[in-house]
Amino acid sequence: RVGPTPAVAPAPGPGGRESEPFEALVASGRSPVVLSASAVEGFPPLPTYRATVRNLSDRSVLRVIATVVYLDASGAPIPGEERDVALGNPRSPVPPAGTLETSFLSRVDRAPAVRLVVRTLELGPKEGAGSAAPVEWTNPRREEELATARGR
After folding, report:
1. Is 35 within 8 Å of 53 (Cβ atoms)?
2. How far apart (Å, rounded) are the C-alpha atoms in residues 52 and 128?
């Protein structure tokens, strides 16, 4: 099946905590989410990748915009083949300390592996904040993380 699957129940995060305050994660230079992805075999005509979004923060993650770095069989980035992908659904947010497993399609053939780098996150308001507007977080380390994903 291509598409999102429901977020799983929260599980303890690093250090046994369920989640960490969003502000503390950002202040320490850490991303509020951890992303991973792998190729799914047998999905013609377009290549398919399974992605996992792990929310480390105390706020719900409504949507993640990530840059996909496509890698060839040797693990080297495929030149000119980076694309942004949206992960998540504001109607079904990833809860604090929760995980979302989803899939995305690609136009890039022959990319057995990918790396995901967060561009922006849309986060729900703090618990108990009422009807406060969502918060957008832009990854300040994106260029550095892209360079690492590219193997530089």
Report:
1. yes
2. 27
From the list 68, 67, 72, the residue with the least C-alpha distance to 111 is 72
Residues with Cβ within 8 Å of 34's Cβ and at least 6 positions away in sequence, in order, are 53, 54, 56
Backbone angles phi, psi at 26, to 5 degrees: -65, -45
Tokens of residue 144, six digits:
């550095």
- Give residue 106's Cα distance to chain centre: 16
| Whole-number Å distance between alpha carbons of 16 and 19 | 9
Helices (H), 2-149: 22-27, 142-149
Residues β-bridged to residue 69: 82, 115
pLDDT per residue as tens digits for the range 27-69: 999 999 999 999 888 766 778 999 999 999 999 999 999 999 9
